[in-house]
Amino acid sequence: MSSEARNIDINADAGESFGQWRLGADEALAPLITSINVACGWHAGDPATMARSVALARAHDLALGSHPGFPDLMGFGRRAMALSPSEAAQAVLYQTGALRAFAEHQGVPLRHVKPHGSLYGLILKDDAVADAVADTVGEYDQALTIVLEAGECAGRQRDRGHRVAAEAFADLEYSDDGHIIIDPENQRRDAAWCADQAERILNGTIRSVNGVEVPMQADTICLHSDRPGAEDNARAVVSRVRDLGWTIRPLHAHE
Prior knowledge:
Layout lengths: L6 E8 L11 H4 L5 E5 L7 H14 L2 E5 L17 H21 L4 E4 L3 H9 L1 H14 L4 E5 L2 H8 L4 E6 L3 E2 L5 E2 L9 H12 L2 E3 L5 E3 L4 E5 L5 H14 L3 E2 L7
Parallel strand pairs: 1-2, 1-11, 1-12, 2-3, 3-4, 4-5, 5-6, 6-11
Antiparallel strand pairs: 7-8, 9-10
């Protein structure tokens, strides 16, 4: 990301309701963000929710992305599973293809793929899985961007020739080695803390839970729709980003 461009994408993980059960502040976040990552029915979501999420993206001109995860509705895709590189790649392809069907039906382009939860973590830890997933996404559609945690994994896939967006998180804490810490319970995060985190990200760093300053260059900042207080967090982050003179634009508009 060029420091001169001063463009940043703000994305949200969404579409995670299931049946009659509603989760997340998707409608409230939609006017504030520029990209939306939609669950594809494995860790969360269902066909009706996917259709509603695509319609939400269309109504607010959001960049639409798939948010594929492990087949783990009970554990919300956050429990570890031993998928081989091929199995992980096929899981991403299967779910992305399903969302694309809904997107094409409504005339909405699919822009990116962002793995979810423990699948995201597996990709960060296992180069063979990361390679297989990135290669499969690229073979499926070279125009798709794969969204990965800012740092070594994102850089490696970019060096391999893939279209990559490096992601940082405004509402999660980080370890000293620059990796996100997943909350065991999704508790409310102070909105001002999220805005401060976003400001540090724009300045090229994050602060770990132990106060370590870790360099980090990001193309997109994530917020979670299912976190209590998500709308307040998003408003605080958007306000801070704009106050700092940055333009909030979807990833494909940065090119």
